[in-house]
Write a structure and sequence with these properties.
Oligomer: single chain
Structural class: alpha+beta
Order of helices and strands: HHHEEHHHHEEHEEEEEEHEHHEEEEEEHH
Strand content: 15-25%
Number of helices: 13
Radius of gyration: 38 Å
Helix content: 25-40%
Distance between the termini: 14 Å
Number of strands: 17
Shape: elongated
Largest sheet: 8 strands, mixed
């Protein structure tokens, strides 16, 4: 009787084992994971089964290790910069903005009119002229021109807005240019140039708003102007050398490093453009990682620019200059920058600017001190490039004009300036991620094929078998056991 009671239970176990082997064999015969079926092959000897087990374990180890390396490589987010186009046409960009400043910023012949208009007392005329003489050669790194004002009683002139006075005394287009040629055609100089604030003072700028395009290359194909020095109208107490300052910048860039244009010379400036951009794969990363800022990243810690201006490296540096002026003297020289809400420097603030001039000479990086020796600290500005930036490289060629020729006899007619594109193409550099998520998926698929010979579908099949078929089998086996129990 006891033997008959155990027979149904033994037959149930035998039936479950048979069904399990059928289920397992059905999956293994259709599986795309190489070598897996050999582990469960009924005719496989035990020794060979152990060897194939070790082989699969080794393959899994290689798969996991290489997958870790791929994940680490993807996590590092390394960049590469390549030449995207070595012959991009310059027709895609605007002709540079040309900014020209007289080294003597003010037309001294208007001084009597200015004194009368602003009601300068006779006892203050000498001090007023000394201040304007300082403004005559003022630039951001030359606040020392106001050193002689220390100890003077400047309160009586605090009511004057020297920015407005300098703007009225600045050179006008008809006073600075005698002839203008744009793309081989004579043009009205006052139609081409307009007043422009700069860290050099009030100057005249070409092509800032119009953004005309240069279609030709070579000498005399761009902008050709004849400059008038008018030395007789310069400030008599300004000992600075005579001549002009030229800046060649991209539109939306506030300032550039000036080029000297000397009397009795013809200066040819050949411009070569280099464009650099970061592709879309990099823009998902923070600006601190990719080391550039886009126009719309206003919440970035590196985004600071002049009020109302597009973000550019130079605009960020100009804003940084203003903040250092505010730090040292609690004012900013609005003559150098666009209108803003900062307090403008008055006459009594000028000695403070001169006192801190030695601290405003250079830009420096926050971590350069171990490598660069400086006697004085500079401006630490955490500014980055725009993610789409244009670099304009200038190649100068100067020739001396013979002063004994009648056309070059006077300095007022002795300077020619020619700015043009050097060649019809430009280099385009692209910075992108070396390893993107697409590369990660492709590499992972390749290592899966190499180690196990499987694909995503094979992995889905294995997950389906392990997560659905196996639990279903055990649930049915348990249900049959409950039904057959006495």
């Amino acid at each position: 009787q006891s033997r008959r009671e155990f027979l149904p239970e033994n037959s149930l176990k035998s039936e479950n084992s048979r069904k399990w082997m059928e289920l397992l064999e059905g999956y293994i015969t259709r599986s795309h994971i190489h070598g897996l079926y050999l582990l469960f092959l009924p005719t496989m000897r035990r020794r060979m089964r152990i060897l194939w087990t070790l082989a699969l374990i080794f393959a899994f180890y290689v798969l996991i290790y290489v997958s870790y390396l791929l994940g680490h490589r993807y996590h590092n987010k390394q960049f590469q910069t390549i030449v995207a186009n070595s012959h991009a046409s310059i027709r895609h960009i605007a002709f540079p903005v040309i900014i020209i400043c007289n080294r003597n910023r003010l037309n001294w012949s208007r001084l009597p009119e200015i004194k009368k208009r602003y009601h300068i007392p006779p006892e203050r005329e000498e001090l007023f002229e000394r201040i304007l003489t300082g403004y005559d050669s003022l630039s951001f790194t030359k606040f020392n021109v106001f050193s002689s004002l220390k100890g003077e009683h400047l309160e009586d002139l605090n009511y004057l807005n020297f920015t407005d006075i300098v703007a009225e005394m600045a050179w006008r287009c008809d006073e600075m240019f005698s002839e203008c040629i744009w793309q081989r055609a004579h043009r009205d100089c006052c139609a081409l140039f307009r007043p422009r604030r700069l860290t050099l003072g009030y100057c005249l700028a070409f092509n800032e708003l119009e953004q005309r395009r240069g279609t030709e290359t070579g000498i005399s194909t761009g902008l050709l102007v004849q400059l008038m020095l008018r030395e007789e109208d310069h400030a008599p107490r300004n000992p600075q050398p005579k001549g002009f300052l030229l800046s060649v910048v991209e539109s939306s860039v506030w300032f550039g490093f000036p080029i000297d244009v000397w009397p009795h010379t013809r200066t040819n400036v050949a411009v070569t453009a280099v464009y650099h951009y970061f592709d879309d794969s990099t823009l998902s990363l923070p600006s601190s990682y990719r080391r550039c800022v886009t126009d719309y990243e206003e919440d970035s810690e590196h985004f600071q620019t002049l009020e109302g201006q597009k973000y550019m490296l130079e605009n960020c540096q100009a804003e940084c200059q203003q903040r250092y002026l505010l730090r040292y003297c609690n004012c900013t020289l609005d003559l150098f920058y666009p209108p803003s809400g900062y307090r403008a420097c008055r006459a009594t603030d000028l000695p403070c600017l001169a006192e801190h001039n030695h601290l405003l000479q250079n830009f420096e990086q926050s971590e350069e001190h171990p490598y660069v020796h400086r006697e004085e600290s500079g401006l630490v500005c955490d500014c980055l490039n725009n993610c789409k930036s244009l670099t304009l490289l200038t190649d100068l060629r100067k020739s001396i004009l013979k002063p004994w020729w009648w056309r070059n006899y006077t300095r007022s007619e002795g300077m020619w300036l020619n700015v043009y594109f050097k060649k019809p193409s430009m280099l385009v550099y692209k910075t992108n991620l070396i390893y993107t998520w697409v590369d990660l998926i492709v590499s992972f698929g390749g290592i899966c094929q190499l180690c196990l010979g499987c694909s995503i579908i094979s992995i889905i099949e294995f997950i389906y078998f392990a997560a659905f078929k196996v639990p279903q089998f055990y649930w049915r086996a348990r249900k049959n056991k409950v039904q057959n129990s006495p």
